[in-house]
Specification:
This protein has 299 residues and is α/β, with parallel strands linked by helices. It is 35% helix and 19% strand. Strands 1, 2, 3, 4, 5, 6, 7, 8 and 9 form a nine-stranded mixed beta sheet that branches. Helix 2 crosses helix 10, helix 4 packs parallel to helix 5 and helix 6 packs parallel to helix 7. The chain is globular and about 55 Å long.
């Protein structure tokens, strides 16, 4: 046991702590020998996709929960795992609260609403209480959320990742077999800079990128129906900045979600757009993205 720990420590102190190959060559040693955990399936889950933004405040959680609901509406057994330990949003978005019960195997039983199973740190702590934890505690909580939840036979699980490209993202990409990742960004340059970092992270850890979702790209006036591009680089006079980023990095633009007051209002009230207005322009946009993703992962 001590020799194995020493080996792990040696590799983790290496200047390349992830043990990733240089110049695109495949690693020569198995993951365990390089001090990395073996990737595992999540029990009772067929497909797992991660939704990431790298930038906070771009609507990632709203898109993640609407995608999970759209999968359910299409007839798939879906769930969502809120991987944001410090700022969980899923309880509010799904209008759920209360501490999860334990199964006979001492596993957390997901809370369900609108046909979607869910698990979140927000169910385990009071919503007014901050999670003031250091890294080791955060990683332990994440391990429990990943491996100690008794999902009830899911076709697809959506992982709502926190912003950034740090410990949580690396833990998930190193330990979980992901079928793909979705990047969420607004067309704003400051958000796209971080989105590009997220794209690079998933490429570095060899997770397939399913595509990018452009959020809050246009606003339609409720009075005259005129469509306005909120950000300067979404002009119709040429390719938008977000399309250029997708082209430069070889990923698909999965779709555009418009800026609309009801998306925010519905989310805050715990009745997301796909539940409240599934056939609206906004609801169809979410459902269209979910259909594309389902085809890409053979759902």
């Amino acid at each position: 046991m001590s020799r194995r720990l020493f080996s792990s420590f040696r590799y983790l102190q290496h200047e390349n702590p992830l043990g990733l190959p240089r110049s695109g060559a495949p690693p020569q040693l198995p993951r365990r020998q390089r001090g990395l955990p073996e990737k595992r399936d999540i029990r009772n889950v067929k497909k797992v996709i991660a939704v990431s933004s790298a930038k906070g405040g771009v609507g990632k959680s709203t898109i993640a929960v609407n995608l999970a609901l759209a999968f359910s509406l299409a007839g798939h057994r879906s769930g969502i795992l809120d991987a944001d330990i410090f700022g969980p949003s899923i309880p509010t978005l799904l209008n759920l609260s209360g501490e999860p019960r334990l199964s006979s195997n001492n596993q957390l039983i997901p809370l369900t609403n609108y046909g979607v199973q869910s698990m979140s740190m927000g169910y385990l702590v009071d919503e007014k209480s901050p999670v003031v934890w250091r890294g080791l505690m955060v990683m332990k909580a994440l391990q429990q959320l990943l491996h100690e939840v008794e999902w009830d036979g899911l076709d697809v699980l959506v992982l709502d990742l926190p912003p950034g490209t740090g410990d949580t993202q690396l833990t998930i990409t190193q330990q979980i077999k992901l079928d793909g990742a979705i990047i969420v960004s607004t067309p704003q340059d400051i958000a796209l800079k971080d989105a590009i970092k997220g794209i690079s992270m998933f490429k570095t850890v060899n997770v397939p990128i399913l595509g990018l979702v452009s959020n809050m790209s246009t606003f339609t006036c409720p009075n005259c129906s005129h469509r306005t591009s909120i950000f300067a680089n979404t002009s119709h006079e040429g390719p938008s900045r977000i399309s250029t980023v997708c082209s430069e990095h070889g990923i698909d633009l999965l779709g555009d979600i418009p800026l609309h007051a009801s998306i925010c209002d519905d989310a805050d009230r715990g009745r997301p757009t796909v539940v409240r207005e599934p056939d609206s322009e906004r609801g169809l946009a979410f459902r269209g993205i979910a259909d594309k993703v389902a085809g890409m992962i053979d759902l």
